[in-house]
Write a structure and sequence with these properties.
CATH topology of the largest domain: Leucine-rich repeat, LRR (right-handed beta-alpha superhelix)
Number of strands: 13
Strand content: 5-15%
Largest sheet: 13 strands, parallel
Structural class: alpha/beta
Keywords: Leucine-rich repeat, Repeat
CATH class of the largest domain: Alpha Beta
Organism: Ploceus nigricollis
CATH superfamily of the largest domain: Ribonuclease Inhibitor
Protein name: Leucine-rich repeat-containing protein 14B
Family: Belongs to the PRAME family. LRRC14 subfamily.
Distance between the termini: 71 Å
InterPro entries: LRR_dom_sf (IPR032675), LRRC14/PRAME (IPR050694)
Strand order of the largest sheet: 1-2-3-4-5-6-7-8-9-10-11-12-13
Oligomer: single chain
Length: 519
């Protein structure tokens, strides 16, 4: 649909569409029109105008989320446009704001908030080139370091050194940009642009480097911490992290695969788990927790019962939960507050059908996102699943890829899903009858693409027709065979791939050396 624009916004578009004229005229523009002109420039991808607007920003704060979000003049939210031209112009404009030789009293800017930028799969910008979270981290760190070098070498007005701007950003650090980010954080006190890390994600880092950089970020300000791929953090390291660093504002915590493994627990490990639970209990703001691919059988209560604030998001996918774990979740105070829940990789119909039903009934009034991938949900379970989902009237997202459901069962389920008023995204499995007879679940990566693609396309069309006939064109239905889109993985997949190849090569060399010794 076409988004309505006010006459003010149309005028702003006309003004910035002639870049040369707009740049010459900025000094005559009223200060309160800068936000309007910024959004119009961003929509039209007028990089030079964006740069000059930021370089001459006359207000106390510059909040990307608010500037690009829905406004009375133009309702469309542009914060999901991570256009490279626009974002680079913003950040270089910020650098030049510091270097701009205008009178110091004209410089009011104190806070720049870049955290409102959203990384999404489909981009609508004309240049088709995005600047993801990793690249934004890289560029801002480079600009801070370059700025400091320039200020030390050049003859600047005394007022330039009095400029102090807090730049709020979600940092994404890997081996490849680690040194640059560390340098920028080390020189934070001397630099007019001060990186303030609100969220931190690390992939492909040694533990030594992770522990070093996390202390530099000022953990007292951190609201979100994601330790994801190829950071070999195990339980003893997590205890060390929580013992040495305080995270008073932390709201969201993501731990890497295999952080916990209760199958090889000793008495010391049990005490360690208790300590970690108690430390998390001290994080009074913590409402989001992701611990996928750890083995936590029978220990969920020990880990979560110390929490004083109810969780709104919980990801315990592939954590080998038993009936006692599910019973604790269903009866805990968290159940009534869960807005996002991921129980993938558990045989729900076989292990705890009634407990799962109870859990879902407790969180049904607030649940927005439910993920049940590889849960052995079969045709015979669909009616009960519908019964479970019926009260979930706020559900926006339902993912159930990897379940052995037939085309007929999927059609039955889709007919029901049309009745959920808030639903926007559905990720459904390739129907079982599209695979060769005898296929076993969960399907391994080698076999996942070996299905009748023509038949699948026909079924997918029929499922979309069900949505269409129910006037639910607003629902997006898809089958991501290798998992949902992850902007961070997408942006750094070359580095991730190189790391995996290197690890495989090292493992192979160790195996060969051991084999040769035995021979």
């Amino acid at each position: 649909r076409t988004t309505m624009k006010s006459l003010r916004f149309i005028s702003a578009e006309a003004f910035v569409s002639n870049a040369e004229f707009a740049r010459k005229s900025l000094r005559a523009v009223a200060h309160d029109l800068f936000p309007l002109l910024f959004k119009a420039s961003y929509l039209l991808e007028q990089g030079e105008v964006i740069h000059d607007l930021v370089e001459n920003w006359p207000l106390f704060d510059f909040n990307m989320g608010k500037l690009l979000g829905a406004t009375l003049d133009y309702e469309e939210d542009l914060s999901h446009r991570t256009c490279s031209v626009c974002l680079e112009s913003c950040l270089t404009g910020l650098r030049d704001y510091v270097l701009n030789q205008s009178s110091p009293y004209m410089k009011k800017l104190k806070v720049v908030d870049l955290t409102g930028i959203k990384d999404v799969e489909v981009q609508f910008c004309k240049c088709k080139k995005t600047m993801g979270r990793w690249a934004r981290t890289q560029l801002l760190s480079k600009l801070c370091s370059d700025l400091l070098v320039y200020l030390q070498q050049a003859q600047c007005l005394p007022g330039t050194f009095e400029v102090s701007i807090n730049v709020l950003i979600d940092l994404f650090v890997t081996e490849r940009n680690y040194d640059l980010v560390v340098q920028a954080l080390l020189k934070k006190c001397s630099c007019p642009l001060k990186i303030c890390c609100v969220a931190f994600r690390s992939d492909n880092l040694t533990l030594q480097k992770f522990f070093y950089i996390i202390k530099l970020t000022d953990p007292s300000l951190l609201r979100k911490l994601e330790i994801v791929h190829n950071v070999h953090l195990e339980m003893e390291h997590l205890e060390m992290l929580f013992n040495s660093i305080h995270f008073p504002l932390l709201m969201s915590l993501t731990l890497p695969a295999r952080t916990f493994n209760v199958r090889r627990f000793t008495a010391t490990d049990e005490q360690m788990l208790t300590n970690i639970g108690e430390k998390m209990g001290e994080m009074t703001q913590l409402t989001e927790l992701s611990m996928s691919f750890s083995i936590l059988t029978g220990r969920i209560q020990k880990l979560l019962s110390p929490l004083k604030t109810p969780l709104k998001m919980l990801d315990v996918s592939n954590c080998s939960l038993n009936h006692a774990d599910m019973a604790f979740l269903a009866n805990s105070f968290h159940a009534n507050h869960l807005e996002a829940l991921d129980l993938s990789g558990h045989d729900i119909p076989e292990l705890y059908p009634s407990t799962f039903f109870k859990l879902l009934s407790h969180c049904s009034s607030v649940l927005r996102s439910l993920t049940l991938e590889d849960c052995n949900i079969q045709d015979t379970h669909v009616n009960r699943l519908i019964l479970c989902l019926s009260p979930c009237q706020k559900l926006q997202e339902f993912k159930f890829v990897g379940n052995p459901l037939s085309s007929q069962a999927l059609k039955h389920l889709f007919t029901f899903l049309c009745e959920l008023p808030m639903l926007k995204n559905v990720e459904f499995p390739v129907p079982r009858d599209c695979y060769p007879i005898g296929i076993t679940y969960p399907i391994d990566d080698a076999s996942v693409c070996r299905f009748d693609h023509q038949k699948y396309e026909r079924v997918a069309e029929e499922l979309n027709l069900i949505l269409l006939q129910a006037n639910r064109e607003d629902v997006k239905a898809s089958t991501p065979l290798f998992g949902s889109y992850d902007a961070a993985v997408q942006e750094t997949n070359n580095e991730l791939g190189a790391y995996l190849i290197k690890s495989f090569k090292e493992t192979l060399e160790k195996f060969t050396a051991s084999f040769n010794k035995m021979s």
